[in-house]
TrEMBL record:
Segments forming domain Helicase C-terminal: 359-533
Keyword Secreted in record: no
Entry annotated with the keyword DNA damage: no
Name of the protein described by the UniProt record: RNA helicase
Record keywords, A-Z: ATP-binding, Helicase, Hydrolase, Nucleotide-binding, RNA-binding
Organism, scientific name: Citrus sinensis
A molecular function (GO) term: RNA binding
Catalytic activity field: ATP + H2O = ADP + phosphate + H(+)
EC number: 3.6.4.13
Length: 805
């Protein structure tokens, strides 16, 4: 702290920190060893125990006994009426026809690549086939299958479904494990987990002892964890010749994976889908041009006397003219194809954002008025877009009777009640319209979709290695993704797909999306490589399916060295080892660890939870001023969005205690849902920290300094560094600069935006995003001394150590 940490004490702090971190680490490992044999929910320990017990011969015999019992139970279920019905359904899936071929390939080859249309029964059926065949044969030891999913939500949903198909409760033969949650019993043979969980298991169990099959699902998505896992598994396979690896993918880029694993056999499950007719922009415009005439009819409303009608007519006329000009633009752009060759260049000529919602509306109206019944699935870029279009459509006059239209949103953070509606068939005569992100491409299947509208873009994080800045921009999807979107229309009958871009733009799409490994910062990944003792980071990553750029790797290593997680020789420091045990980004982990060390854990956990969920401060478009001043009330002129968040959260907790949480949120423009998410994440953090031995079971002490805002500010600085910009107060404005980008701006909802003066020479920030200019999201002002002591490698005395040799 500014007051109690004068320079002379640095050496002592340094020694203290080092001792603290290493002692905690030793304690944690000691306790995990001494706990073997007792029951625990802890995942790492659980696995260790399991392995130890599994070694014994007695255990083997018991296992076999139990799997026979399981098999008998399963047969009894299949003979029951519900079981019969389920079995019938399972046998109707396209994968059933390939069952024997799949099992044969798996038993004869160490690696098999399986592809098949979404919904054909890869995820739910294939693991069950293995389970059933192994138990049937009862050939020695029972099998143990791990099936990874890229998303938490799918790991949970799929395990539930498979358990239901087997007439069991979760935790019998089927279980799941996601971060901080899971369900597993002594007879669990099939485990659905996130890819991250399997990676963490590899940390304590390098050779996956006891596991007979690893299934890596949704491999076509090319997530970072999946690519990482494949490198590790590829190295593991020769050491575990009896281990089977099955890669499953929806689209047909099986060759890439097959050749990565030395020509592994590829099996395709031919799925039955109905033909889908594809329209590109040029066709859509021709087909729907007459709709413009409909808009002309609306002009008649203008003659109405009523003020309300006139107002509506005005709004519609405005919309009509924007559609008309959009159509003109689009036609003009479509003509571009005459002289634009099929290169990336043609993509930049075509800008759908200028057409945006209007075109989607236009096509939706066409479908609702003119087409046969059937649900409509609209692929959009992000959930904010989805929400605004939903609002806009809610009372759209051209969509007709609102009670005949069921408008739904589908994205990662939707409520579960809404989720169910998406799958349900609506009443006759009601048109279901689902506005979705690319989540509806492969992870979920809506059976009654007949029409698909594809905007052609998806929001994805990309990473600009040159100036080390992540960007979040809607970018063009790949041909594979466009094909996948189109396929969603032909599940129950022939369908139609409207691609809202010209054909020539489609032709210029990349075949497949760029893998995540090539477009995101690699810090967490590098830390994991080190903690798994996989050798040199660059060498390891060069063995990836598609290795990342050396510059990105270098940036990540440098970052980890700056924050003190790696030393000059790329060895893991004590801090680094502790960070690798926390499943959060390194900078957030560092903040948590320091919050624990400096006994101000509560507010620091709130900040970290807020940074990992999303901003709870709502900024409704039409009440921006009110919302901004509501937020400003929480800032108490201390120039910190993070401290404002802490106050808002604390106030909410207080209000909750008096049963007025909802009112509090409403008054202060806060999202109760987000605050609840922050609340639950905080509990998880505390669990993690205790688990890692960084916080005592008795947590009283770790909040001794929680009221001290200087200290909290310092810990925030330590975590966010080197996310740093300098503040220059000018006469009327403030200039902000970072080293890499030069001039940067603040998002308007920051408490530091628009203030006449910031009395701190520096702002630390969590995130900068390149849109047109570079924008900083949340920021906190820090002083020189805090920056010197807490910036950089704090266990060596922060930045000061660079100044004082
Ligand atoms: O993995 P893949 O996309 O090939 O298909 P799946 O997830 O195994 O689903 C196979 C079929 O099971 C789907 O077509 C759905 O009809 C059904 N299913 C379901 O009814 N409920 C679920 N939660 C998951 C699948
Ligand atoms: Mg699947």
């Amino acid at each position: 702290r500014e007051v109690i940490l004068p320079f002379g004490l640095l050496r002592e702090v340094d020694a203290h920190l080092k001792a603290y971190l290493s002692q905690k680490y030793i304690n944690a490992s000691m306790s995990s060893l001494s706990n073997v044999g007792s029951t625990t929910n802890d995942e790492g320990l659980y696995e260790q125990q399991e392995q130890l017990v599994q070694n014994s011969v007695v255990r083997e015999r018991i296992l076999r006994q139990r799997s026979l019992q399981m098999h008998e139970k399963q047969q009894a279920w299949q003979e029951s009426p519900e079981g019969q019905k389920m079995l019938e359904f399972r046998r109707s899936l396209p994968s059933y026809k390939e069952r024997d071929a799949l099992l044969k390939a798996i038993s004869e080859n160490q690696v098999v690549v399986v592809s098949g249309e979404t919904g054909c029964g890869k995820t739910t059926q294939l693991p069950q086939y293995i389970l059933e065949s192994e138990t049937e044969a009862a050939r020695g030891a029972a099998c143990s299958i791990i099936c990874t999913q890229p998303r938490r939500i799918s790991a949970m949903a799929v395990s539930e479904r498979v358990a239901a198909e087997r007439g069991e409760k979760l935790g019998e033969s089927v279980g799941y494990k996601v971060r901080l949650e899971g369900m597993k019993g002594r007879d669990t043979r099939l485990m659905f987990c996130t890819t991250g969980i399997l990676l963490r298991r590899l940390l304590v169990d390098r050779s996956l002892r006891g596991v007979t099959h690893v299934i890596v699902d949704e491999i076509h998505e090319r997530g970072m964890n999946e690519d990482f896992l494949l490198i590790v598994l590829k190295e593991l396979l020769p050491r575990r010749p009896e281990l089977r690896l099955i890669l499953m993918s929806a689209t047909l880029n099986a060759e890439l994976f097959s050749s990565y694993f030395g020509g592994a056999p590829m099996l395709h499950i031919p799925g039955f889908t109905y033909p889908v007719r594809a329209y590109f922009l040029e066709n859509i415009l021709e087909m729907t041009r007459y709709r413009l005439n409909t808009y002309n009819q609306i002009d008649d409303y203008g003659q109405e006397k009523s003020w309300k009608m006139q107002k509506q007519a005005l709004a519609l006329r405005k919309r009509k003219s924007s559609i008309a000009s959009a159509v003109e633009d689009a036609l003009e752009a479509a003509d571009f194809r005459e002289y634009s060759v099929q290169t990336q260049q043609s993509l930049s000529c075509w800008n759908p954002d200028s057409i945006g919602f209007n075109l989607i509306e236009h096509v939706l109206c066409h479908i609702v008025k003119k087409e046969r019944p059937g649900a409509v699935l609209v692929f959009m870029t992000g959930w904010d877009d989805i929400n605004s279009l939903k609002d806009q459509l809610q009372a759209h006059p051209l969509l007709g009777d609102p009670s005949r239209v069921l408008l739904l949103a589908c994205h990662g953070s939707m409520a579960s009640s809404e989720q169910r509606l998406i799958f349900d068939k609506p009443e006759d005569g009601v048109r279901k319209i689902v506005l979705a992100t690319n989540m509806a491409e492969t992870s979920i299947t809506i059976n009654d979709v007949v029409f698909v509208i594809d905007c052609g873009k998806a929001k994805e994080t990309s990473y600009d290695a040159l100036n080390n800045t992540p960007c979040l921009l809607p970018s063009w999807i790949s041909k594979a993704a466009a094909r996948q979107r189109r396929g969603r229309a032909g599940r129950v009958q022939p369908g139609e797909c409207y691609h809202l871009y010209p054909r020539y733009v489609y032709d210029a799409f990349a075949d497949y999306q760029l893998p995540e490994l090539l477009r995101t910062p690699l810090q967490s990944l590098c830390l994991q490589i080190k903690s798994l003792q996989l050798g040199s980071i660059s060498e390891f990553l060069s063995r990836a399916l598609q290795p990342p750029e050396p510059l990105s790797v270098k940036n990540a290593i440098e970052y980890l060295q700056i924050i003190g997680a790696l030393d000059e020789n790329e060895n893991l420091t004590v801090l680094g080892r502790n960070l690798s045990m926390l499943p959060v980004e390194p900078k957030l982990g560092k903040m948590l660890i320091l919050g624990a060390i400096f006994n101000c854990l509560d507010p620091v956990m709130t900040v970290v939870a807020g940074l990992s969920v999303r901003d709870p401060f709502l900024m409704p478009f039409d009440k921006k001023d009110l919302a901004e001043s509501a937020k400003a009330q929480f800032s108490a002129r201390d120039y910190s969005d993070h401290l404002a968040l802490v106050r808002a959260y604390d106030g909410w907790k207080d209000a909750e205690r008096h049963q007025s949480g909802y009112e509090y949120c409403w008054k202060n423009f806060l999202s109760a849902q987000t605050l609840k998410a922050i609340d639950s994440l905080r509990k998880q953090f505390l669990f993690l920290l205790k688990d890692a031995g960084l916080v005592d079971r008795n947590t009283e002490n770790c909040n001794k300094w929680s009221h001290d805002e200087h200290l909290i500010r310092a810990v925030i600085c330590a975590g966010l560094f080197p996310g740093l910009c300098s503040v220059v107060n000018k006469e009327k404005s403030i200039a902000l600069k970072t080293m890499e980008d030069g001039q940067v701006l603040l998002y308007s909802n920051s408490v530091n935006a628009g203030v006449p003066k910031i009395p701190y020479p520096w702002l630390v920030f969590n995130e900068k995003i390149k849109v047109n200019s570079v924008f900083l999201r949340d920021s906190t002002g820090v002083s020189d001394s805090v920056l010197l002591l807490f910036g950089g490698n704090i266990s060596r005395g922060g930045l000061v150590s660079c100044l004082i040799p």
